[in-house]
Amino acid sequence: MVIALFTLMLISVVATALILMAGTESALKGNYKSAMQSFYDAKAGLEEGRGRLWARNPNSIASCLNPGGGAMMPLNQVCYILNPSPGEVVNPQDLSAANPYADNEYLTEWNTTAIPSGASYNTVISNSPIASANIAGPLYKWVRITPRTESSGNIDVDGINGIDNLNPLFFDGMQQRLSTNGIPVPAASQVLTITALAVTPYGSRRMVQYTVALAGSAAALANVSSALTLDGNGVSFTGPSAGTGGRGNGNFQIDGNDSNAPPATQSGIPAIGYTNSSDGPSVSMAATPSGNYLSPAGVPNVGIVSLPPILQTPGGLQTLVNSITQSADLVLSPSPGTAADQNSLPSAMSASNPKIVVVNGDFNLHGNGTGYGLLLVTGTLDYDPDASWNGLILVIGQGTFTSSRRGVGVINGAVFVAQTLDANGALLASLGYSSFTQTGGGNGIQYSSNWVKATQALMTYQVLSFREIPLATP
Amino acid sequence: MKKQTHSARGFSLVELLIGTILFTIITGIAFSLLMSAQLRYQGESSVTQAFQQANVALDQIVRDIHSAGYPPMSSFSAATASGNPYGYALPFAWTPSYPLTPCIVGSTCTVPGQYDLIVEADIGNGQRVQWIRYSLQGTTLMRGMTPKGAGDPVGATDSSLAPYLDNVMNGNSSLPIFTYTFDNTTPPPPSQPSFIREVNVTLIVQSAHPDPQTQQYRTITLTGQAVRFNPNQ
């Protein structure tokens, strides 16, 4: 009897030790898994925030960010996307120690003691859970979106007067820039900060942060300088000679008058703009008959234009190409020596559903159809003016636009041509000689501010930076 | 006359002998079981400890790489960035010829290498942009951190290196700790440090003590995939 009890006791000790050991290992792996899960949950929150910033998102949060609908998100505005579990209350504004979801990070970033309230505090509910499919969605608790300032980012952007929360930051496609006196930086997009907190049932907490701005320097694109911009040095322009109009061949014009200007008013831009003054005489001489090149009163028909920094260098333009590509609905990459054509364009493209199409190579815009949105071609664009395009056409790369056929099509919007690559596809040290040739006919280019702006709305928000914010209890 | 019963007779010498032998055998088995379990517990504890330490190290490496390149140069105006090159972070520092001439990973780069990596990031510790270096020296993975500055990042971080994870056997196994995946763009970018998009981390860690039963050291292998989220510069 004694022996049996003694043996049982020993075996119990052994079993207990084994159970403890297994439990320790399980806890270790559980903690690691929970920490990883909370990180990716928080990352999912960032992506929901970034996605819903997009103007074309069906669940856009534009009104949460900017209820007044102004040009930029006010400094005192804060927008939260809340994602409570069933039966749970998530209130980041409650800064009591008992609230596990308190947003104390806001206080740190904005050097304040309270989160804005009233009209400055807006919330929307996350759309990541799909109740109908019984999908709970990632376990982030809230996502906060605020304007970016020097103080909130803890970065002295301009190196002057330290950091403060007085002026929002903007992104010109290459650098962040500090606005002054509440006036947006021209040709730049406002920088926003997206912060997300995730807390798992195990108690793991991770907080991550994006800074974002509209991709592709959309603001720079929306402020085009001329109906046809020839960017670079030694650019060339060739238009149809007199007498090519009529008889189904259109009336070629490059018209800088804004077709969307209010009735009885005139506004617009030059018909043709170039960036190097030494190109002025040759471009002006080629732009004949002068009646084909129109602009509002007081604006030169053909003249030198000033472009944002991102459009002034091959590197900047390549950055633009890369970010547009990231937002593209369709990227075509024809084999060397071949060209993609209009048959590859998205069938769903329409006036109400414009698209971003990027062609890494040559493209033939032929046929009788109409395209809508932003067309970016890195090779040669061959245009048959039977076709039309509403929006922006960017020929950045080889920088060659050719058209020799007849037709009555028109480009409503603007065209931008720049040579950034050599014949082998290598980036040039400085901008080359972009070329625009349309000798056949067609109705030319009609500047339309609405179509140009419509392309801005196609741009998604790009990530400018990412960081994880250390928490006291990770 | 009263009859004498057997129960009062007691144990015979043979019975006692058999009982003692049985007791010895049973307790011997029990103790050997206990001893075996204890040895196994010691062995597993050693492995668990190694796993935990490797886990923490791997998690830290992955976190650092996630933040590599924060804040990017684009966070500053052009004039500020050019006037303060230590205020922004490239994703990864390199040697030789830092920062003027990018090297080729796997070819001309000494760092980043298979056993040496330097991350540039502001990790929110109030120290601004840091060079955070991981370097395998013998069987010890070292970690060091120093503010980003002028000169060669390897030389600058050498003095800050401190033991971070012991008994790392990647060197002995000729299995790299760090392998790199570059941006997937068309055309593919050069294999330069600035285009590293993912760092695959593999840690082979040996237990601190040999297994008491087999007298063999046990190893565990942890792998992690760390993505750099900050954009190219």
Give a verbal description of the structure.
The complex is a heterodimer of chains A (474) and B (233). In chain A, β7 and β8 form a beta hairpin. The longest helix of chain A has 52 residues. With 474 residues, chain A is of the alpha/beta class. Chain B is of the alpha+beta class. Chain B has one domain. Helices cover 30% and strands 22% of the residues of chain B. Chain B is built from 4 helices and 7 strands. In chain B, strands 1-2-3-4 form a 4-stranded antiparallel β-sheet. In chain B, β1 and β2 form a beta hairpin. The termini of chain B are far apart. The model of chain B has no long low-confidence stretch (mean pLDDT 90).
Helix content of chain A: 10-25%
Task: Give the overall shape of chain B.
Answer: elongated
- What is the beta-strand fraction of chain B? 15-25%
- Unreliable stretches of chain A (pLDDT < 50, length at least 5) are none
Give the mean pLDDT of chain B: 90
> Helical residue percent of chain B?
25-40%
Strand order of the largest sheet of chain B: 1-2-3-4
Query: How many distinct domains of chain B?
Result: 1
Oligomer designation: heterodimer
Strand content of chain A: 25-35%
Given helix and strand content, the structural type of chain B is: alpha+beta
Structural class of chain A: alpha/beta
Distance between the termini of chain A: 53 Å
Radius of gyration of chain A, CA atoms, in whole angstroms: 29 Å
Q: Rg of chain B, please?
A: 30 Å
Major β-sheet profile of chain A: 11 strands, parallel
Number of distinct helices of chain A: 8
Topology summary:
The complex is a heterodimer of chains A (474) and B (233).
Chain A: H1 2-53, H2 62-65, E1 78-82, H3 104-110, E2 121-125, E3 140-147, H4 150-153, E4 169-171, E5 176-178, E6 189-190, E7 192-199, E8 205-214, H5 218-222, E9 228-231, E10 236-238, E11 254-255, E12 272-274, H6 280-286, E13 293-294, E14 302-304, H7 314-327, E15 330-332, E16 339-341, E17 355-359, E18 362-365, E19 370-377, E20 380-383, E21 388-397, E22 400-403, E23 411-419, E24 435-438, E25 445-447, H8 449-456, E26 461-469
Chain B: H1 13-66, H2 78-83, E1 116-121, E2 130-137, E3 140-147, H3 153-158, E4 162-165, H4 170-173, E5 178-182, E6 196-206, E7 219-227
Antiparallel strand pairs in B: 1-2, 2-3, 3-4, 5-6, 6-7
